[in-house]
Amino acid sequence: MTPSPLWYAARAAGLVSLILLTAVVVLGILLSSRWATEAWPRFLSQMMHRYVALVAVVFGAFHVVTAVLDPFAHLGVTDAVLPFTSSYRPLWLGFGVVSAELIAALVITSLLRARLGFRIWRTVHWLAYASWPVAMLHGLGTGTDTRTGWALLLDAGCLAAVLMALAVRLSGEGVGWAALRAFAGLVTAAGTVALTLWTVTGPLQAGWARAAGTPSSLLATPGGSSPASTAQPPGAATSPAPVSTTVPVGLSARVSGTDTQNADGSNTLALTDDSDPTLGLTLAVPSGDGSSLQLTVTRSGTSACSTAATFDGRTVTAVCGSTQLSLVLRSSDDGGIRGTLTTVAAGAP
Q: Which pLDDT tens digit goes with each residue over 264-274?
């Protein structure tokens, strides 16, 4: 199985949102400078600015919804509303929340423009332009594709478009004092240099996923932009070489089963893959703190491996041959156990 389609949808919607938001900012800057040509009259910029902004809101909302529904990062509604509170890359995800809320404020005040008055609406409108650099930081700091060549070209293209629009605005008539132009140009140049240096020394470096605040339980799961190498736990049983083919890499499956308490106080969790009942997992949890677990994986009733597992308070992790398995479990309303199983190559770079 491949990672959740929601994971791909959230990534795609985020990138499209950045492109559309860049277009909105560029058109807004050109409108403020009253730029126009015979081939592109000013009313066309006004119309495009309005409609592109609406489409950007739609894709932005889709990005948020799919990110919350995707089981990978375990985001909740609170994470999508309150910035910097998520356990997953809190700072960089928080920037995305701030950007979305600035855009939401613009939409709401635009709908209430007649009641709020032009001055309040214009103030909020200009503040909303801050959503673009904040969204850029969010994408670079959180984006799965940040280190890919095409994503870097996309980000560079968005940055270049905004810089060109600013250059037109600052060089146009009616900008104001020369000192104000120089100051705005200096701030823009300094911001561009700082963003470039931070990108090179931060998101483009190995180990950024951990430094950005990715929970350790997710560092080796599908979707991590910079997975950490994970060694086989001490004492783990070594499976025969053919076993690795029976536990495929790339799984992102829902599992369910039962939790049975034994006479000695230990528990046995019997789980099966909801979409592939031939894949079974049995987790033996001893009495006490449950730190020494034993995971047995079967395929069509035949044992694939039996190995020691670790539990970090949220995720059960084990290595079966050349495959690392991660289980996130919870109690279901019917008294059983449900959760998510993901697999990656053990020690993936």
A: 878 898 998 88
